[in-house]
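Quick question about two entries, pasted in order.
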Amino acid sequence: MAATDRRETTVASIVTGEWRVTIPKESLTTVKHEHGLVRRAWLATIAKVAAGEKMVAKIASDDPRKVVHAFKVGITLALVSLFYYLRPLYDGVGGTAMWAVMTVVVIFEYTAGGTLYKGLNRAAATLTAGALGVGIHWFASKAGHAGELIILNGAVFILASVVSFSRFFPAIKRQFDYGATIFILTFCLVAVSGYRVDELVVLAQERLSTVCIGIAICLIVSMLICPVWAGGDLHRLTAGNADKLADSLEGSVEGYFDGKEAPKAQGFKCVLNSKALEDSLVNLARWEPGHGPFSFRHPWSQYKRLGDAMRNCAFCIEALYGCLTSEIQAPELMKKRLSDACLKLSSNSAKALRETAACIRLMERSKTLECLIGETSCAAAEVKRELPELLPAGDAEVDHQLVTTKRNHSLIEAMPLVAFASILAEIPARVKGVAEELEKLADLAGFKAAGERLSN
């Protein structure tokens, strides 16, 4: 029994000075296990912190304006908070300074256009809904206690329903959706709180004044301290998309004949995925004042049409890329016979797209774009002329059945190449569509004549 007890209570001795401490072996195992868990948790925390630092550095290096935006939000909140901290300012706004803080939080956006859109929508909606709420409350108060309740509740039901339904209209959804939401919120607050508050007009005035203070500070900081213009971002995005189309077109055609995929061959995906961003930037740019080379009435909506024309071109390039990555390929000998014409067509089309990008970027008309478009059309005609030469010609002295069999076999082998060349031959028409939309933009925006910028 004593031997069994010794086995079950095996101990490890730790000598500390004059003391000898005996610890069960099971406890040491538990301590080591817990120490391992703590160490692994600590290492995992360090790894996450390091990954977070890398992400912060990447975001800041990719677009330093985002760092500036964060400081601008902090500055704006610090300024508007003074109306709550300083007693003279606090007394001046009637103790409703928190509404100014809330306004800054909800309307301050990355771009100046976004801040203007939300700020002006909020100001108009707050003023309209507040005035309407006070007016209905005054009218309802003349109808007695029961009548007041019916009128106020009915007004909330009718206006909330009508304004909510109006948000489904495309024009209102695009330009005034935020304002419609704020209108419903403000009217309900005024109508409902007015039922229990005696000085409703004073309350409405105080809230309106603090909301206007928050909006004014947001607009001043957003537009005067390193402003980020949605219009400028849209302009650069459109020019960059044209360059990406050119790189993607050349990469897809060269890769098809070389058997190697170029790094920039998938640039068309960025163009196809940019529609939502384009639409958002167009809507925000309309709210912005004139800045830089863009006038107050700059034709931002034309950028949407130009972007749609570029996406039509990107769809063709996507089909070309699909031929490049397909497992079914034409014989290399057939590809070689058509490679020169196809490479010439892609090169001319890419030049036209890059010229389009330069015209957009410089806001200048082009001397060579029309000529480049003509060259792409000629190159497309050359590709179409060479397609029938891929098939063997008939010979009267050779057995007809043998010739037919040979032609059918060649046709099957040539089908992937014919499909690729046929899609490529459609590119000039798509590029011409881009050039036409660019010409409309140049007319509406008043682009400078070719060479005028250099002469000035």
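Here is the second entry:
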Amino acid sequence: MATLDWAMVAALAGWILVATNLALRLVALGVIPGNRKPSTGAAWLLLILIVPILGFVIFLLFGRTELGRNRHERQLRAKARIRERTGRLADVKPPPGSPDLVSSVVSLNDRLGSLPLVADNGVQVIDDYDEVIRLMTEAVTAARSYIYVEFYIMAWDDLTGPLFSAMADASERGVDVKVLFDHIGSRGIPGYKQMLADLDDTSIQWHPMLPIMPLRGRFRRPDLRNHRKIVVVDGTVGFMGSLNLTERGYNKPRNHKLGRQWVECMVRVHGHVVAELESVFAMDWYTETDQILAVEARQAVHTTGPDVVDGVSCQLVPSGPGFVAENNLRLFTTLIYSATERISITSPYFVPDESLLYAVTTAAQRGIAVELFVSELSDQFMVGHAQASYYRALLEAGVRIHLYPAPYILHSKHFSIDDTVAVIGSSNMDMRSFALNYEVSLMMLGPEIVQRMRQVEDHYRAVSRELSLQEWLRRKPGLRYVDNVMRLTAALQ
């Protein structure tokens, strides 16, 4: 019997490993750059060139944004149905005094997101966390026909309990209550299993979005998430913005110990834009359940009050992997290039791609007053350091960076352009929100609504401190190194 030559086996294994590494590198060179941004392709190539086998495994798990043929086809059918229904809304023009470019932005949004500009809406900007929950509970309590609720993170806790109870009571009296929440986003919050049990004890119809359930054959890239926040009641009132449906510390003891609380901004809307919010919910409901919801534009019902801005022209812009283009990114960059006087941006996670970075820094370099509001301390290690890697370029271009004081987390997501346009929604200004997350953004036109958003920005500025270039240049080399590494990982989309 021949003796096994372990030296030969080891040599052969070594040659196989070398050949595999070389083959993977060659394959990556021809496959990775296809239909990807240069920065994204370069980041994936660098990872695979450094650690070919591990890098390729990571790429197979996280390198593709496809959601499966069946889901994609459902999304296309839902989008076509939205186009058909919203096509019945009146075709309106931007209000008088709007810059010429706004008309082309409206056409861009309509073409990409299938939702038109609609006029004569009432908008209430709400930057009080508890007040948002109270107003949503009030609307749900008054519901007569249906309630549609969709959030990235959902938790049944002391703050949100009255809202959930109101939904349960409504379902018992015959109101059609439908609830969507992101599977991965919500299950990381303490009390998740109890929330599911409590929902099961009601007549509420609920479904997780983008569920990861390998044993049931439901698996996809795990970091593709539905990040939207939407509430629609009876087709007459809607809510959207940045707030997740949980208490201000996300029910996490560490946040409570640190005094960490989230700062949010939402809008309550009335008018035809509510039908657009309802259409986005209906698309997500159909995608998850294969059930079609009838969406009709109803007679606009307005609520007057000192905080309500009437007569606002609005356009809703959905975005995400189900759309061909990065709708939110194209909207953001186009508006930023259109600015002639002032740009104010609030984003908890500002990790721009090349196009957005150039738009913001170019605006500052051509004399536009550009300011960025971010948290002093980020709640996410990797994203916080990736964001920090852009501060020098922004400060050198003339962008003024305002740091919202710790331990608060400035989670609001909105920006304003001159005195004519404001945008608010669920989308961060980062590559994840542009390419991987389902988001929804609301463009609002007119000086009155911009002035209301300015009041929120003025408050942020009053409580924040401004970061100077001199201070930032003193940042320790070790921190700068971590910033740059995290910047590279942010490009692995």
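Reply: Residues 6-31 form the longest helix (26 residues). Residues 69-95+123-311 form a domain with the Endonuclease; Chain A fold (CATH 3.30.870.10). Hope that helps.
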